[in-house]
Prior knowledge:
Blueprint: H1 2-19, H2 22-43, E1 48-50, E2 54-56, H3 60-81, H4 94-117, H5 121-139, H6 145-174, H7 184-189, H8 196-214, H9 222-229, H10 232-259, H11 263-285, H12 291-312, H13 315-345, H14 356-359, H15 361-374, H16 381-395, H17 399-424, H18 446-460, H19 464-476
Antiparallel strand pairs: 1-2
Helix pairs in contact: 1-2, 1-4, 2-3, 2-4, 3-4, 3-10, 3-13, 3-18, 4-5, 4-10, 5-6, 5-10, 6-8, 6-9, 8-10, 9-10, 9-12, 10-11, 10-13, 11-12, 11-17, 12-13, 12-16, 13-15, 13-16, 13-18, 13-19, 15-17, 15-18, 16-17, 16-18
Amino acid sequence: MIEILLLFPxxxxxxxxxxxxxxxxxxxxxxxxxxxxxxxxxxCFEPYEFTRYFRVDQLNRLFLIILAVIxxxxxxxxxxxxxxxxxxxxAEEPGRSHSFYSMNILLFVASMxxxxxxxxxxxxxxxxxxxxLSSSYLIYYSRTxxxxxxxWKYLFICSIGIAIAFVGIIFLSMGLGNLDSLFFDDLQKNAxxxxxxxxxxxxxxxxxxxxxxxxxxxxxxxxxxxHSESPSPISALLSGTLLNTALLGIIRINRVMDAARMGWYxxxxxxxxGFISIFIAAVYIVNIRNYKRMLAYSSxxxxxxxxxxxxxxxxxxxxxxxxxxxxxxxxxxxFLTSGNILKxxxxxxxxxVKGLLKxxxxxxxxxxxxxxxxxxxxxFPIFLSEFLIIRSMFEGGRVWxxxxxxxxxxxxxxxxxxxxxxxxxxxxxxxxxSLRAKGLGFYSYAPxxxxxxxxxLMGVSMPDFIYNLIQSAVQFMGV
Length: 479
């Protein structure tokens, strides 16, 4: 089954290139999404291994099902989104451009699957780099000056980050002695034999290196540009899934550090980088003018919250994994809805969007409910994850951390809330309130409705299926 997930996109990309058909490309993406989702659900009930290098375990199946659900929604949205894309200035005809777009989506998803299922540190590193290369065309798709700048920044910063991670892997290898294996199982089993000096030296390099792809501050500067310039379906994938895959690499390394009795070291660094990320997001969101960049900084904030949860340990780890799932679904809903707003108003600037509830009421309500989900208003599950994190701080005697955490979140909620309610309320003087959203159809709304329904279900009465996925991942991490 794993071989299907990894090889299907390669074969499909070749077919898309040969047939060069917009309809065929979209249908093939949707078919792969359906196959991926079905196989991922199967993996939740039974483990699977494809060679020694790829395996489904209690930890990565959570990340796999998140990727499958988000990608399925994106594939559905993609059926109607391409008609509204503007700014194509390349020499290729639209059909050929769409073929390259579809090919790279498939290869991008395959590379993220490779990261999630890898059992070897070096192989995981290779797939992280592959995800950078395969997604770069998707960021540049509109072929504008700003998208070109965002793509080069993305390639340059993420390549430096992955190079730093590679240095960390070299340092780790130097401390292995006779072990000579970078399989995660071997590293964890023999963690006590790894030279502590090289292990302590290697971890910050890998944290910063992989953390660059996660979007941790202060190595986050590629993220606002890439997320804001990408087509909305790609922004949903970047924020809802790509950040998670790099985060999984850090979690794998954390397990090795815990086995070597250096959990205190990783927790300290995660808490520092988590609060830096939230602080950076709070500073920029207060006066943000571009609503897609606002969502990008929100991603930085939420990845910081996840880092804090991991750094607290105990119940904080359950909260971090719950927050990971909730953030992915909510942010995908926000970015897809932002695509609807962009089609209606043809601008990314908050000040030029007003009266969304009157011009496209369904997108307006999706925007409001997604906002409620991302800031953690009940009954959305982010409320529960943030409550558990704050409780862990109090139980650990870190009241001052809880105060700072609460204040930063309040600033962020105020900043995002002001933008959301400005955009949805009222109407501009002299504006025609006739719907410019006529080009939006079923596919432009359905994925967000599904994501929000799942989130509300998780918040009101979490299904045993989802709870067991998260809890088994926590147990796998040794908590």
